[in-house]
Amino acid sequence: MLLLAFDTATPAVTAAIGESAPDGSFALRASASSVDARRHGELLAPTIRDITTEAGLTPADLDAIAVGIGPGPYTGLRVGLATAHALADGLGIPCHGVATLDALALATGRTEPFVAMTDARRKEVFWARYDDHRTRVGEIGVARPAELDTGGLPLVGDGARMYADVLGDAAARPEPLLPDASAMAELALDRLHRGEALPEPLPLYLRRPDAAAPAGPKKVRQWVK
């Protein structure tokens, strides 16, 4: 199975094509990542085109798509999800979701418990606890770093780096900082091979977006002389 994976839920624009053999083994065909929080919409499509060419494939060769569902800032997250749905519909192939923090966790390769976190803005982090790089414990949450009880576990991710002064020694080795689509492709293909269900490719929102629909028109007072 050839699977295209990409994520735009963080400042990183990351994409990869992975392949799984009948025995479930994983091979990375091509990948690319860049970091620019303001240019997700400009960078994603060219990145997908470039890695497809590098892998010696055409879009028609793909069997499935996996996309990061966040949580993450509204605008960047929607770029990835809209692109994933458009490609899947156009190619007639399935589209699966992968939690962005799960991909970040897999890339750590850690075999002991830890906490992964990314920047949620508003002086908060998105976070989740893991028993190891493949096993999340509980749901993903959002909190202020100073209010987060991590149980003294090691912290990874850009959220840990940003608030290292608050989080202390647990954030001393936060790498990897951002998700990598290579790990996302590996995770998605492994779960599909095992027959496990992947999340729907829908945005994982943990709070209301910054933007809001305008209220009704304001009343205008008429001054009478």
Helix segment tally: 6
Radius of gyration: 19 Å
Q: Tally the beta strands.
A: 9
Distance between the termini: 78 Å
**Which word captures the global form?**
globular
Structure report:
This protein has 225 residues and is α/β, with parallel strands linked by helices. The chain is built from six helices and nine strands. The strands form two sheets. The chain has a five-stranded mixed beta sheet with strand order 3-2-1-4-5, with helices on both faces. It has a four-stranded mixed beta sheet with strand order 8-7-6-9. Helix 1 (40-54) crosses helix 2 and helix 3 packs across helix 6 (181-193). The termini are far apart. The mean pLDDT is 92.
Structural descriptors:
225 residues, 6 helices, 28% strand, alpha/beta, 4-stranded mixed β-sheet
Q: Layout of helices and strands, plus pairs?
A:
Layout: E1 2-7, E2 12-20, E3 26-35, H1 40-54, E4 64-68, H2 74-91, E5 95-98, H3 100-108, E6 114-121, E7 124-132, E8 135-143, E9 155-156, H4 158-162, H5 164-167, H6 181-193
Parallel strand pairs: 1-4, 4-5, 6-9
Antiparallel strand pairs: 1-2, 2-3, 6-7, 7-8
Helix pairs in contact: 1-2, 3-6
